[in-house]
Amino acid sequence: MIDVRNLTKNYGQLEVLKDITTTIHEGEKIAIIGPSGSGKSTFLRCLNCMEDPTGGSIIFNGVDISDFSVDINVHRRHMGMVFQQFNLFNNKTVLDNIMLAPITIAMQNLRKQQFKRFINKIRNLVAIEKRPLDEITTTPAQIRQAARENAMNLLKRIGLEDKATVYPSTLSGGQKQRIAIIRALAMNPKVMLFDEPTSSLDPEMVGEVLDLIKKLVEDGMTMVIVTHEMGFAREVATRVFFMDEGIILEDDTPERIFTSPQNPRTKNFLAKVL
Amino acid sequence: MGSFGNKVAKFWEMFYENGGYTKVLTGLQNTVIIAVVGLAIGIVIGTLIAIVEVVPKYKKLPKVLDSFCRFYVGLFRGTPVVVQLLVAYYVLLPLIGLNLPSLHVCVLVFGLNSGAYVSEIMRSGILSVDTGQMEAGRALGLSYRVTMMKIIIPQAVKNILPTMGNEFITLIKETSVVSFVGAADLYVAFNYIGTNSYEFMVPYLVMALIYIVLVVLIALMIKVMERRLRLSDRRT
Ligand SMILES: Nc1ncnc2c1ncn2[C@@H]1O[C@H](COP(=O)(O)OP(=O)(O)O)[C@@H](O)[C@H]1O
Ligand SMILES: [Mg+2]
Asked: From A104, B9, B65, B234, which residue has the greatest number of CB atoms within 10 Å?
């Protein structure tokens, strides 16, 4: 699903990612662990080109999305991303947070269709060979209605439907992060990228967020998750990357990484955190 | 005290019985028009400049745009607004052979002028919005432009509302120089009353009072708006 080929990333002189090549297959749940500053976030952010790779390429479903000539926005819609700091839109209610992207994008597509139809209509006035006009099947009202229903269903799923009209500033960290997750899900992504989703939560709220992520795991969502929750990584991951100094030092099943790590640096790291 | 009462009587005669108040009303209207429309123009120009300045380098906006904005801001912040008015009215317009009413020229110059100041306010407002907001929008597949318009700018505007209110107050006060190019503002009205009643003390006192009342009213309005915005944050 995602092919990472010879990925490098530099910030000025600093080499943060050093020639990473790996493949993330559909249905995999990949946990990325490793010491702070090892490049985990940078690697994750390269996957949807939030950071542009310095070298190499990211192939997502056969398209090289690191190529500047592709419309990255179109591909990012299929890759949900969840941040450590939640990043809910402060100026929007919970419901609007979830509906904004689906509505905006559906409206853009509708306008494109209407424009194409309009051009064809004009063209048909003068051209001898008439082009068929595409039927436009949706209306802005329908788009909004569908987005609202979908958003409310997602909110019900996490039991926060009563928060639909509040602003993010009134929510707890755990609630914010769960809403951030369903906001990403509202786009029907093919893969979810999590960057330490529980690291800025109070301990008593970690569980509710991890439970929601586990539900996605059960639904078969492909995901890449940077985490310090070793127990969680071991439980849900199908593959674990141990990253250190800009490379994936070890890439193995959670079983093997956590019980018999091959690399001394992995051993060292796990000894410290477990 | 008797002489002051006499002065007030003279003022009242000119102000009320001889119709001076119509001039005052016109002056007040012009002052408000110049400040309000000027600020509106300033906000549009200022926002555009601020956006040019905060758009990341890789977006490859033409370099001239950036240089032009910097030149523009430097020009309008580097010269007094009176000079800008005089140059616009007595130099530029005749040069291009355009004949505009002085009120229009004033609105334009104050708009261009406040654009330079608003751009700085707006820029700091945009930079004050957490970078995570832009990241979240982009990660959802929204374009830079859409995220800017729907997420960043609304939050920036909220952050800078108090500063923007100050800019409006500054504008109201600065309009008191528009008589240099023949626009009829409060100064012109009260000067007329003073000249015709041979008495300037009371007219200028009243003029000062009107400015103070205007400024206090605006400050109040901004307070109310701010409170409204903050409420919308906490609505449950
Ligand atoms: N925008 C940036 N500019 C410069 N250096 C950065 C930037 N982002 C990350 N780095 C550096 O890259 C290295 C890896 O960072 P990061 O990927 O965040 O590590 P991790 O998520 O594993 O803690 C760190 O040394 C960090 O200081
Ligand atoms: Mg990190």
From this structure: A104
- β-partners of residue A58 are A4
Q: CA of B231 to nearest chain A CA: how many angstroms apart? A: 10
Of B83, B100, B111, B98, residue with least CA distance to B177: B83
Chain B residues within an 8 Å CB radius of A169: 233-234
Q: Say if pTM beats, i.e. exceeds, 0.90.
A: no
What is the token pair recorded at B101? 């009413």
Pocket flag, ligand 1, residue A40 (CB < 6 Å): yes
Nearest to A4 by CA among A256, A264, A193: A193
Element at A8 (helix H, strand E): strand A2-11
**One-letter amino acid for residue A54 of the chain:** T
- Chain B residues within 8 A of A180 when measuring between CB atoms: 136
Q: What is the pLDDT of residue B236?
A: 44
Q: How far apart are CA A42 and CA A4, in angstroms?
A: 13
Minimum-distance ligand to the CA of A43? Answer: 1
Give CATH for domain B2-235. Answer: 1.10.3720.10
Tell me the percentage of chain B whose pLDDT exceeds 90.
59
As a whole number of angstroms, the distance between CA A190 and CA A75 comes to: 10
- Helix (H) / strand (E) element for A195: namely strand A191-195
**Cβ-proximal residues to A267 (8 Å cutoff; 6+ apart), any chain:** A261
Structure tokens at A132: 């068929």
Sheet with A14-24, strands from edge to edge, namely A14-24, A2-11, A55-60, A63-64
Inter-chain CB proximity A89 and B236 less than 8 Å: no
**Which residue's alpha carbon is nearest to atom 25 within ligand 1?**
A37
Ligand 1 atom closest to residue A38's alpha carbon, by position in its atom list? 22
Q: Which residues pair with A252 in a beta bridge?
A: A240
